[in-house]
Amino acid sequence: MIEKDHCQLSLVEQCRLLSMHRSGIYYTPCLESEENLIIMRLLDEQYFKTPFYGIRRLTAWLQDQGYAVNRKRVARLMGIMGWKTLFRGRNTSKPGKGHKIYPYLLKGLVIDRPNQVWATDITYIPMKKGFMYLCAIIDLHTRYVVNWSISNTMTAEWCREGKPPVKYHKK
To answer: How confident is the model at residue 167 (pLDDT cuts 50, 70, 90)?
Structure first.
């Protein structure tokens, strides 16, 4: 929307009209290096084999693979990827004081017709440079995908928004 060589409006005036700072025009975000993308791909593949590995084990594993990495770099890449190490934690099955217990509303419900119950699922798709996330709304009776959306960031806003669901047509 900004034209640097506009004949009537200066950059200052264009930024004022768009309510943005001039520093935003000149900033170019830094992309991850090719090596970091390769390491992230390796970490992603390793996660399916050993989801219980932490930063120290992954650092040692990557060093065994021939990569010069330290714990800080591995921790940063794990954070970018949203890696959650699986480990035994506190017993979370016991409800906390004052915590409301929500009932399972589908218990005992016979799902015998389309559009009776919908479910949602989110998954990710590895790409050459990063990941894409896929959110789908599924009719539980017919297993029909009612609606779907993809995004390069997994945010709550993206999951809530999106196109209105398409009408279901019985075949």
So the answer is: very low
Q: CB 77: neighbour CB atoms within 10 A?
A: 21
Q: What is the mean pLDDT of residues 39-59?
A: 91
Whether 124 is covered by a domain: the verdict is yes
Q: Is the dihedral of CA 73, 159, 103, 138 positive or negative?
A: negative
pLDDT surpassing 90 at residue 7:
no
| Structure-token pair, residue 131 | 């990941």
In this prediction the pTM is 0.44
Domain-embedded: residue 43:
yes
Long-range contacts of 33-41 (CB under 8 A, 24+ apart): 35/67, 36/77, 37/129, 37/130, 39/67, 39/69, 39/77, 40/77, 40/80, 40/81, 41/126
Cβ burial, residue 127 (10 Å; 0-12/13-18/19+): exposed
When divided into structural domains, the chain yields a total of 2
Look at residue 154 and tell me if it is in a domain: yes
For the chain, report the end-to-end CA distance as a whole number of angstroms. Answer: 46
Owning domain of residue 151: 118-160
What is the dihedral sign for C-alpha 49, 55, 58, 62? Answer: positive
Residue 164 has pLDDT above 50, yes or no: no
